[in-house]
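Let us work through a complete example step by step.
Step 1: write down the sequence.
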Amino acid sequence: MNIQTQCCGMIVLVVLYLFYRRQERVKLNTEKAYRRAFCVTVLSVCMDILSVVAIVNMDWLPIHFVNWVCKTYLVSMIGVALSSLLYIYADIYSRNGRYQRFLKRYIWVAVCGAVLIYVLPIYIYRDMGKNAVYTYGPSALATYLFALSFVAINTYSMIRHKDMINARRREAVFVWMLVWISAAVVQFFFKDILIIGYAFAMGIMILYLKLENPEQNLDRRTGMFNQNAFAEYTQQLFAEGKGFSVLCLYLEGLFHQNAQKELNESIKLQISRYLLDIPNTRAFKNGEDAVELLFGDADYAGEVIEQLKVRFTDKWGRDGSVFLRLQGIFIPRADMVSNAADIPYLLRYARDNRRKYTEGDFLTVDDSMAAAMYEERVTERLILDAVEHGRIEAFFQPIYSVKEQRFTCAEALVRMRDEEGKLIPPVRFIEVAEKTGLVIKIGEIVFEKVCRFIKERDISRYGLRYIEINLSIIQCAYPELAQDFIGIMKKYGIDPAFINLEITESASLSAKNILLENMKTLMGYGVEFSLDDFGTGQSNLNYIVDMPVSIVKFDKDMTSAYFENGKAKYVMDAAMHMIQGMNLEIVSEGIETKEQFETMQELGISYIQGYYFSKPLPEEEFLGFLKIHSCNL
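Step 2: predict the structure and record it as tokens.
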């Protein structure tokens, strides 16, 4: 009998089943669709084998039984084609709840095809001398028609909805159908080569290897599900309208590399087993230091949180010698976000801003936090759009030299406009830009605009000796900063003496080594530096000693405190005399009144900056200001 290929296909399916059944699964709709396709394929291969056996033995078997077996095999082929369509539809439509509607529709179409196959006549060819058997006739043609129709619909759906489908799933299904169609074409023209059943089995194996191996959704070290499983499962819950809660646990020191690696791994496994044993929940590993637990009920999640707090008051490890601090973010209702993809953003926002909302180790997210997260994301998109469409600008605020009694320099300040051309307050976008790292691109744009301004306007004609440009903490920690800035200065051919870069105390704390390397390179090229915002945070004169700066800028708050607080007055006097004793220049920022201006003059402050003279101005207005106030024009 010519059933060798079918038997090989069945062996493949049996081996796959043995591997598949022993693994933990997330219970996704695509997993259900895959199991359906698997079962239909097994049935089809079995019926393929039985049909060959029936034809070979048709001399003593009832002809109606043989015909029924052969037609049932043909119906199973339609079932395989339908299962491939429903598999990809589980990925496309499970997100919007339309999957069940399509499921019912196409099952009815398949039933109609099955009825037609059973009604139409079928013819059997048997040549035992050539060891060749097959079926043909109207029933077989109807099978090809319905099966290929499902394949065509599947192909169209994958092309039309390509952005909605997992790319690897789309690729795997294309290969699956290509193998199936190739086998069908070969068997159509060479009817004695029975390879369709084997092709079905190969298709199922391709899906398993590419997508449906449950181990792909598992973190092998901990046994928890991974973030790919978390994303797909939460998307499915959203599509089905099922409410759920998320508890994200941050285990400080647990998932980080340290000298006690073996102990670390042992504790990981111990905690993983503990979390996996919590009933009615699913555990997902997130990065190196976080675990996400999903609950179907917020009240039950609250009970688990209390149990966790109690458990983590005890020690961990084989000998019970390790204490771990447990921190958590709890989202009691998933409908706080508009879609599953926003859950990681909300968790990240809550973690980054936890100290704004609580001093404790557990933060429960509320609607206001979700709204703030969305506002931050809107701002991020606004920044990206402004960068892409050239709506980042440099404004200039003049700086007055007390000694020369004129404006000798200016500070460049970043400004951003919306689509309508309206200015967006820096307080709205600067923090978001720093969080997202977009501040590096913004800083590069501002620096280039300043260099072009220096080149095209020849600022020395206006009595300006240099332009100050503020560096954010993120920029200071960027290793390529110096080379990028030198490249821009070379591009415009400007004298680096026209550039003075402002750093902050906090920047020198967070990335001191990288900052010093950048400063060394830029100073070697001819750029000078200022220490900005002196008087904020943890002000310390040691910073001035450590940082190779030529100018120190007193923050607006420090300047204001001088006039409002007697103690601040003594602090500022002492700091000023020490800084001047180091032969450094001082700029007093935030001067807004004539009284403040005259007092700073009397104190011997070198430079004065503030709204008393001018707010930050766009290029043309700034140049107009200089024309009016410059002694050289």
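Step 3: interpret the result. The chain has three domains: 4-216, 221-365, 399-415+448-629.
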